[in-house]
Design brief:
The complex is a heterodimer of chains A (369) and B (366).
Chain A: E1 10-15, H1 18-26, E2 35-38, E3 47-50, H2 52-55, H3 65-71, E4 76-78, H4 82-97, E5 103-107, E6 110-114, H5 125-140, E7 144-149, H6 152-161, E8 167-169, H7 175-181, H8 192-200, H9 206-210, H10 214-221, H11 223-231, E9 248-259, H12 262-267, H13 269-282, E10 287-298, E11 303-308, H14 315-328, E12 333-344, H15 355-368
Parallel strand pairs in A: 2-4, 7-8
Antiparallel strand pairs in A: 1-6, 1-7, 2-3, 5-6, 9-12, 10-11, 10-12
Helix pairs in contact in A: 4-5, 10-11
Chain B: E1 2-6, H1 7-18, E2 32-38, E3 41-47, E4 51-58, E5 66-71, H2 72-81, E6 87-93, E7 96-101, E8 104-109, E9 126-130, H3 132-140, E10 157-163, E11 166-172, E12 176-183, E13 191-196, H4 197-207, E14 214-218, E15 222-227, E16 230-235, E17 254-259, H5 260-271, E18 280-286, E19 289-295, E20 301-307, E21 315-320, H6 321-330, E22 335-340, E23 347-350, E24 357-361
Antiparallel strand pairs in B: 1-6, 2-3, 2-5, 3-4, 4-16, 6-7, 7-8, 9-14, 10-11, 10-13, 11-12, 12-24, 14-15, 15-16, 17-22, 18-19, 18-21, 19-20, 22-23, 23-24
Classes of the chains: A alpha+beta (369), B alpha+beta (366).
Chain lengths: 369, 366
């Protein structure tokens, strides 16, 4: 356990509707108008980010662009320009670096900073956060919100507290009082399902959660129970580190009864897809789907996987992959899994002189497999 | 089969040929070299089915003709470890080959010569004579840009293009491209072929020893190079090389002239703190100055400023520093000229005094 002398100072910086803010900065005609960045409404695109003007109409990220246009007909939907966002993000990180080297970017528009040992601003995390916000505003031309707290979990909640263009500080001595009033729904990792379970136990706030024993939490929530126990007390020991980016996301289910036919396999897709979508929704926006995968484990525990192209999470695409697996080996399965391969848009991108040839060669390779 | 030969005379063809022979083979005879003795001539052949090298040399003294195959690596190691200028006697005795020298004696296993696969006997097609250093220069200035195990298999090799009066080599891995021309005379026909990567490497090695003009024959499926006593034959990559000329920017608005060695050293230093995986560096160009900056996931940073000859608007552009260093290491000139468009267009790097060779490097978005 940490003692008070080793108290950490963590800042969570979160750009306000980043992609939309960058676009509005670069085209003043957009100012004051509802603006979103996202996919083409005619091609089943979704909204990646929208500004507050658009949110007033009920538009939000991950919403289908076509639905967003129905809610807000004058909404301007711009195609994302990741190169530009990456450049702006790099400039913002340069500003962070003036104050600390301990930076953990979560995506292009979010980062944790550990300023515990920063010699700047008399080691005041609050003043560093203000200085960063002012520098981003004047040098980059967009606004960011910041949260200051003794750990990552609270800093992240704090940055959301006064959004947009706000700063919220949770001092060590305020932690206990702050978390008691905090609704459990705001805890990272508590989604609809967990929140529902907790509500059934009569738990709405962290104060309620604190009343539940460590053992009971572990019994109800497995390993996450232990985490809940600490979160309810405002405890989070995770250190700020340059994060590892994901290459894929997948979900799978082992069935109590073996699935004898392709039809039975494919019948599991709606449930699996729903879970995959939920997992994807937890990812930040710095990823693009660049392919789909499916996996089968047979009753003898051997397993097979199949990769395919595709950017959309659709039943039909996964059904095809399962069919390919079935054709290779038509036997009962005990497990079905689906997933996506991701392209990390926050990583540097090396364009190719012969991109078209590369795409064709990859497509041919997939066909021959 | 029986003959006696001076160690140095045998060592050279064995070394030339052994490079082709792969250490791990599915077909046992491919680990062997073919030794043929006819009419006072010895020929040594190595192959990997894609590539074949035959070295020939005259024999003196008592010679019995014949042919066999023996393990390439072992025979080479034996010859290497015998004392300099030693005489070596090789003799086939049943299914064995006996190697004697002074008071040493080795018995090697053999496989019948009839099992040894041979590549194309006749490689008909476009022909050309070229100085070995010219061909060597073409390969040295381009081969480093070839792809390695790319799905675009036709990039895993070197394009050789024969056109009226010009032999051109082009290599690209998609991220950068190298192109070099040599003026030649006596091209019989136009041709465009892709020589596989391994063949290119072996050919470069072979040309290092050669002084006589080499004869190049470009067939439909094979390319053959006869350099002195050695005949090199390689299968060609069966594929269409992309239209490379369309990716060479013709008009870069920005021209930078820099001292090659100064720039090379600055990039080399900055590279130390670039991301090990992506190797990205940021270049900021302004009047008379080129600044290079890199940082890594540990947030360590390197920065350099190089004085250059440049007037024009400012530009920030990212590159994989390895690609720039490869070019600067290959050029020999005092100065280099870099032509740039905007931050998304590829750079063209040349020796300002030589128009025969140019390099295209695609920028990286950092």
């Amino acid at each position: 356990m940490r003692d008070a002398a080793a108290q950490r100072k963590i800042i969570h910086v979160d750009c306000d509707c980043f992609y939309a803010a960058v676009e509005t900065r670069d085209d003043p005609r957009l100012r004051g108008r509802p603006v979103a960045v996202g996919g083409d409404p005619n091609r089943r695109g979704v909204i990646a980010t929208c500004n507050y003007e658009a949110r007033r109409f009920g538009v939000h990220s991950a919403m289908a662009s076509s639905q967003a246009l129905r809610l807000c007909p004058e909404l301007v939907i711009l195609p994302p320009q990741f190169d530009k966002y990456r450049r702006v993000s790099a400039s913002i990180q340069q500003i962070f670096r003036r104050y600390t080297a301990h930076i953990e970017p979560l995506s292009l528009d979010e980062a944790f900073l550990d300023v515990s040992d920063s010699p700047h601003c008399d080691n005041s995390a609050t003043r560093i956060a203000e200085a960063i916000r002012a520098a981003v505003r004047s040098e980059i031309g967009i606004t960011v919100s910041a949260g200051v707290a003794p750990n990552k979990f609270l800093a992240k909640i704090a940055s959301d507290w006064r959004k947009p263009d706000g700063l919220f500080v949770i001092r060590p001595e305020q932690v206990a009082e702050f978390v008691r009033a905090l609704p459990v729904k705001r805890l990272h990792g508590v989604g609809r399902v967990t929140a529902g379970k907790l509500e059934a136990l009569g738990v709405k706030t962290c104060a309620d959660l604190q009343a539940i024993s460590r053992l009971a939490l572990s019994q109800s929530f497995g390993s996450f129970g232990e985490r809940l126990y600490h979160l309810a007390r405002g405890e989070d020991e995770r250190s700020v580190q340059s994060s590892r980016r994901r290459k894929s996301v997948s979900v799978e289910e082992t069935y109590s009864q073996d699935l004898p036919t392709l039809r039975h396999w494919q019948d599991q897709l709606p449930d699996l897809l729903e879970r995959l979508r939920r997992r994807m929704a937890q990812l930040d926006t710095g990823y693009l789907v660049q392919g789909l995968t499916a996996k089968i484990r047979y009753t003898d525990f051997s397993q097979a996987t199949c990769d395919g192209p595709g950017e959309k999470l659709e039943d039909a695409a996964f059904a095809e992959l399962l069919e390919a697996l079935w054709q290779r080996r038509s036997e009962p399965a005990r497990l079905v899994g689906i997933g996506v391969r991701l392209r990390d848009m926050t990583a540097p991108q090396q364009p190719d002189l012969f991109e078209e040839e590369r795409r064709q060669a990859l497509a041919r390779q997939r066909e021959s497999l | 089969m029986k003959f006696t030969i001076n160690r140095e005379l045998l060592l050279k063809p064995l070394q030339q040929v052994a490079g082709v022979v792969e250490r791990r083979q599915t077909l046992p005879v491919l680990s062997n070299v073919l030794i043929e003795v006819t009419d006072q001539q010895l020929s040594v052949t190595g192959t990997d089915l894609e590539l074949e090298l035959v070295a020939r040399l005259p024999l003196e003294g008592e010679v019995q003709s014949g042919e066999t195959t023996v393990p390439a690596r072992k025979l080479l190691d034996i010859c290497k470890s015998l004392p300099a200028e030693a005489d070596i006697r090789l003799e086939v005795d049943g299914e064995r080959m006996v190697v004697r020298s002074g008071r040493s004696r080795f018995t090697l296993s053999t496989l019948p010569a009839s099992e040894f696969p041979n590549l194309e006997e006749e490689v008909g097609g476009a022909q050309l004579e070229v100085a070995p250093d010219q061909l060597r220069r073409l390969i040295d200035s381009t081969a480093f840009s070839m792809a390695q195990q790319d799905v675009r298999y036709y990039l895993n090799g070197l394009l050789l293009e024969l056109r009226k009066g010009r032999l051109r080599a082009v290599a690209t891995d998609g991220h950068r491209l190298a192109m070099s021309d040599a003026e030649v005379t006596g091209i019989s026909d136009d041709a465009q072929v892709i020589v596989p990567r391994k063949g290119v490497m072996e050919l470069a090695r072979l040309l290092g020893d050669s002084t006589q003009p080499v004869k190049l024959t470009v067939g439909k499926n094979h390319v053959r190079v006869i350099a002195g006593d050695v005949t090199f034959t390689s299968k060609l990559v069966d594929g269409k090389f992309p239209e490379y000329e369309r990716v060479i920017p013709r008009e870069g608005q920005r021209r930078v002239m820099a001292d090659r060695e100064t720039l090379r050293q600055a990039l080399g230093r900055v590279a130390i703190l670039s991301n090990e995986k992506y190797r990205g560096v940021r270049i900021q160009l302004s009047d008379a100055s080129l600044r290079v900056q890199a940082n890594n996931p540990e947030q360590e940073e390197a920065e350099e400023e190089v004085s250059v000859d440049y007037q024009g608007s400012e530009l920030e552009i990212g590159f994989n520093v390895s690609y720039l260093l490869d070019v600067l290491n290959t050029l020999h000139s005092t100065e280099v000229q870099i032509q740039l468009g905007d931050s998304n267009s590829s750079a063209v790097i040349v020796d300002p005094n030589v128009t025969a060779t140019l390099y295209v490097v695609m920028p990286m978005r950092l």
